Amino acid sequence: MAAVRRYDILDTPPDGAYDRVAALAARLFEVPVATVTIVDEDRIWFKATHGLEGVTEIGRDPGLCASAVLTDDTTVIPDTLLDPVACSNPLVAGPMGVRFYAAAPIITADGYRLGTVNVLDTRPREISEADSATLADLAAVVRDQLELRLSALRVVRAEQERRKVEQDKRQAEEEARQRAERDKAAIAAFASTLQRTLVPPALPAVPGLELACHYKTASPQEVGGDFYDVFPVGGGRWAFFLGDVCGKGAEAASVTSLTRYTLRAAALVDAEPTAALKALNAALLLDAAVGTRFCTAVFGLLDPARDGGFTVTLATGGHPPAYHLSPIEGGGVRVEAVRAKGGMLVGAFAEAAFASRTLHLAPGQGLLLYTDGLTEARTADGRMLADTGLIDFLTQRPAPVSAGCLIDDTVALLDTLPDTERDDVALLALSVPTPDAAPAGITTTAHSAAAPTADTSVGQENQRP
Amino acid sequence: MTDAFHIDVPHTDGTLAVIALSGEFDIATASAVRARALELIANGHPDLVADLAGVTFCDSSGLGALVGIWRCAKDVDGSLTLAAIPDRLGRLLSVTGMDTFLPVYPSADAALAARQGNRTTA
């Protein structure tokens, strides 16, 4: 019965193929009635009939179909009245008066008998062995038809199932994507708000100095550990710093904030760069999370000089050296690393010492400060850009040095490197324009007025009036 | 390859413990190193030798973990000695001035021998 259910054939509408089999059987055997039946638990259902109008099913009375379906061989009853079981079947004893009955079982490939192909006559008759083989063949045709129908059904059902699974999956993916988008947007908005509190919104206009910067976090979600600032300290002097908090994420960001405000406050008390770094060192060591919060930093003080340039006092706290770029007569640029001997990591050691150096930033010259996101960026061959790569790059740039161009070119260099996503990068460039470089009257030119977000370069050029 | 990162403690002797790292010592692994080292210090081994012979990459996060470990060791009169450090870490130590605080030896054996010498003379 499970096999009958599997083929899902019971009570299906008439189907040309089975009707043709019934008609063919009737014609071949020259009998008035031929049927294709499927045997159900309690009934015999007529899938196709020929010469038997209006009958769709009969009971499972023994003798004819109900018995024929129980054997693997073709059943032939030449005269039903002479058969002890068939003689009492309603089809025989009833108004139809069936006298001859032959049936071949419909047997599936795996041996289940589903029903029978039957031929019936109202007269007794004999059939040859060849005829009973023909009847068996017709049953096999029905079997093949059922198999075909089943496999088609299976394909259709599998396809429907697959479509449903796919549709469910697409719907789930779409929902997940929308949720992720919403979360991402919320996080990015939060991070960029937080970042604006950590990064100066714009560089100030410093008379006689061109300033430019670049700031990029490893990802928009990642609040950076890199920082910089430029601010006035009174008496026409300006201070600047750039640094890198060890570590990443929220912890680093809180140190970044503490560091920026400490350096600003310290410089107002004593603008001497080593004093500012010492104050920062003490502040970071006083913090409750002592030993986990430290940074490297460069702190500089700008004092206007008579030649239109600046005297720069530069202290370093464990930070890679700044580069002083000065045009050489006859073309080219000299690149000098500004190292102050003995500058240590800030916030790690109570005993830390800081040292400073003084240099003269003349018109046409520039100063580049950077975090290790630049020097540790990998080149296409997998090696770090390193100091040597940076020096080569800076040496080949044209003179005179302009902070804006220097940052633009350095960002362009970073963009050519394959894997700069890994680290934050902060760049700060200062340059003193030559008197002939900018026509008099221009006081401020902002390269961009946008607040630094995940990836923004901001620059300002100023000329002393 | 963060998944290839390993922390082993191949040797302990009294207050001393050797902590051997291999793989990338960076933001992803620094906190695990710090936690393991602090555990050693808490368990009576405040004199640590960090054997970095197997370290393939070390950035400022790794450096940060070493500073943190050094501070914690120092708080209990312990010490941190570095052995077989990668070139890049050497440059970082030099640029940050940390080489004045953290003794560096070419190998864990050399670090242990030097400690042994100190102890005998002391």
From TrEMBL, chain B:
Protein origin, superkingdom: Bacteria
CDD domains assigned to the protein according to its UniProt record, in alphabetical order: STAS_anti-anti-sigma_factors
Domain STAS: 16-115
Cross-referenced SUPFAM superfamilies: SpoIIaa-like
Family: Belongs to the anti-sigma-factor antagonist family.
Protein name from the UniProt record: Anti-sigma factor antagonist
Species this protein is from: Streptomyces tamarix
